[in-house]
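2.7 Reproducibility. Because tokenized structures are sensitive to small changes in the input, we list the exact sequence used for DHX16 helicase, including any N-terminal residues retained from the expression construct. No trimming or masking was applied before prediction.
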Amino acid sequence: PRCPQAITAGFFYHAARLARGGYRTVKHQHPVFIHPHSALFEERPRWLLYHELVFTTKEFMRQVIEIDSAWLLEVAPHYYQAKELEDGSARKMPRKAGK
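Resulting structure tokens (single pass, no recycling of outputs):
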């Protein structure tokens, strides 16, 4: 597998998705934010994996990588259901949000 897919296999439980109010963890819908020092801070990809959460003024994701939501179901069918990973790209997203 390619490197991002291998990382997804190891950190599948650290997935977040772009939603209307920002990012939310996939499994528990906990609001999280990309750390301002991240290279992806301005990019706002739809799906992310993070290495750690750091709480300062908000819960920030550090060491983030963009992923494909399909990889989560491939590497962790025991953890995710297909309905949790529906892309929702057909729904309207805020302007300039998500690639």
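Strands lie at 15-19, 22-25, 31-34, 47-55, 59-66.
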